[in-house]
Amino acid sequence: MTQLPGIAGEIEDAIGLELTAKLLKRRGGTEINIPVKPTPSLLSEIIGTPATLKLIETFGPGRIALPCGHMRGRDAERLERRRRAIAMLEDGASVLDVALRCDLNQRTVKKYRAELDQDQNLGQEQFKF
User: Is 80 exceeded by the pLDDT of residue 30?
Assistant: First the structure.
């Protein structure tokens, strides 16, 4: 059973979730050519020759529109900025400083600070007698 919907699920059926995720992280939201022969090709560089051959067998050669453009990095960048912002807040940086250094809106940084404060308060309440 596939975990991904639509064409991504069909690709997953053919080459597995791990290689599908790898392909979508590199080329999601774009069209990619499924070649007549697996090598040399961009597809085989990304997912390897055996998986490329499997896609040729499954879909035939031609262009295919890959979904999931969001997997190409915006989410990863956002998570990295969040991680950096939280680390800076934990080290005592101001909301303004964090917003400027991490390229975030001050409201977002205030939300992160509130989450940190809530987590700290929950931890302290566990030890009250």
Answer: yes
